[in-house]
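To close the section, here is one more complete example, presented without commentary so you can practise reading it yourself. The ligand is inosinic acid.
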Amino acid sequence: MGTLHTLLPVAAAFAKYDKKYAISNRRCVTPSFNEIRHILNLAQVMAIGSKVKLMTFDGDQTLYSDGGNFENSRELAGAMLDLMRAGVYVSVVTAAGYGLDGSKYEVRLDGMLRAIESAGLDAETAQRLIVMGGECNYLLRVQLTQEGKAKLVPVASEEWQGDHLDGPKPLHWPEEDTKFMMDLAQNSMTASATDLRLRCKIIRKARSVGMIPGGDAMVATVPVGHGSKKLKREALDEVVLRVMETFREQGSRISLPWCAFNGGRDAWVDVGDKSVGVAALQTWLGVEPSETIHVGDQFLNVGNDIKARERCPCLWITSPRETEKMLVHVLEYAGIEGEFRYAQEDPLGAGVGPTAAPTVVMDAFTGEMKTI
Ligand code: IMP
Ligand code: MG
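Output:
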């Protein structure tokens, strides 16, 4: 079952849920998996209550749809602003890795950054929004410019991985070890692509290897096959499980943490994982596991949020809408007045999201900018 980082008031959570949804009055239908997930989420929020100091969020499918960007959502952005105003660190811990290039993460988090600007947060409050990219490899935080623009700038490595801290230090991982793992992952994925007749593309970055739909160009290369537009869940799971098998066969030759997962539209192998990302944040910020909550959508054996579970309590959601709903409970049990979340009039103004249709779009897989 894994570590429980807090006591869980499951009976109280059930009573609250049952009061609204009358589960115990049902005669023909037993509690479903999703209902149990909701009750455990609620119990976790009740347990942490006002002790919460750090909330980490997965990106894709938790704050925005897979491959999408943070949208003009007053509820979601408003609740995150309320947490920051109350002194809580809010961090996006995402597998998406674009090195330390703040402009790429700014594209993905656009709606949230615009909300920070519209809300007129002071510099100290604004910098409580932190981004951990590539699972645990790249750390950036918000900085306000003199004109009041919210930018994402790298945090100096000595600050979050310095000798004075006893947390994980991914920057110090030996290059030959990461290369060994990336080579294995790439070879395994290439072999799977042939074996499963996938019309896919394999991407290699500094600390990850990914498989994405190959597009029309791959139809001629793999005349009988599938996946040019969409790779099947079953195929992606198979690719991920084969990489896991390959890595396990290597035994102690794999010396670093890693994460192989099915991202819904793609499959990835990253050096590092979210347990390392959350642990590094906790050490740097001086926050205990029992004062942290991670919110994510991927808790199956082929998911990547499940790793965070080793370092803190988690809320398992299935969409940004559910994240929004859970945040209502988090604010309630933390005793935080929802100035932005509950405002009658929109204090963030009309311009929370992008003001004009973008002419440059970013490929969420690679971070490449394309003019349209
Ligand atoms: P998360 O759900 O926020 O952890 O993001 C996972 C998604 O990020 C993947 O499904 C990919 O679409 C995208 N992504 C972009 N770059 C990377 C990478 O380097 N490693 C893993 N996922 C990546
Ligand atoms: Mg996700």
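Once you have examined the tokens, check your reading against these statements. The radius of gyration is 21 Å. The longest strand covers residues 138-144.
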